[in-house]
Amino acid sequence: MRAAVLSDGRMIVRDDLPEPVPGPGQVLVEVKACGICGSDLHFATHGADMLAASADLEGMPDMDIDLAGDVYMGHEFSAEILDAGPGTEAPAAGTLVTSVPVLISPGGIDAIVYSNTTVGGYAEKMLLSAPLLLPVPNGLSAAHAALTEPMAVGLHAVNASRIEPGEAALVVGCGPVGIAIIAALNLRGVKTIVASDFSPTRRALATTMGAHLTLDPAADSPFHQCQPAVVFEAVGAPGVIDDILRRAPAGIRLVVAGVCMQPDTVHPFYAVTKQINIQFVFGYDPTEFANSLRAIAEGEIDVAPMITGTVDLDGVGTAFDELSSPDRHCKILVTP
Which residues form the Alcohol dehydrogenase-like C-terminal domain (predicted)? Predict the structure, then answer.
């Protein structure tokens, strides 16, 4: 079996991997499409820092990964069922499915994100948990179904904000997370969606995905041009949260969806004096994942404009390099 793996900081292809064998409660699937996530790019470059930060987290499991070995990645996938494990009830072979990226095995629960042992979506085949499978409805394409996972991230952020349709939203940063938030805000019926990004390409995509107004922060502060009730931070870079707290109107709700891996500094004085409510969000729950798939399949969210490139396994390394430029791509899909 072939798979693209992270080895010594670069994505390479292994041609001689053993084919996964499904156990009880598992299915073997053929991967049809898998999106490249920004978190994968960050892990490829800063894996050691991410592992160190994970080890510092109390109350959370450690990321038990050996960076000296091959690391499997790929958690935004759709796949076709090939076979089921012993005694496993699952959809019929040939069914196109997606799933939250979790594999249940006798040894426990493994996240399909970064692993030395659990194969992800940058491979020809992988294992999934039968109870977690969602058949892809309405003849939705494998490419569009693969975007269920990133769109669920945006839906979770919007749900956590409890924004009402009559409240104005400002999305700071129009990368894949910010775009997913814009789509979810549009799905929720929010009447005023403002998006801010330095990249004209990303601002154009934000408009396509539902933003009513786009702003270039290089020209002027977004807060001089709109009065949001809710601000979504989707950049994940040091200094952004503090800048929002300093510039935003009093009483806003700030939802932080961007994952900043570096130490950052904020002035609590800004938030205290303005009585700003700050909510940090991460991931999604299974219901939000299922609702994202439904919204895409029923045409309530059109994810086609987000797909800006497709590569096979041999092109994954080049795709990782190309995604470092915000003006070239939003989402590249791997089609093994």
Answer: 176-297
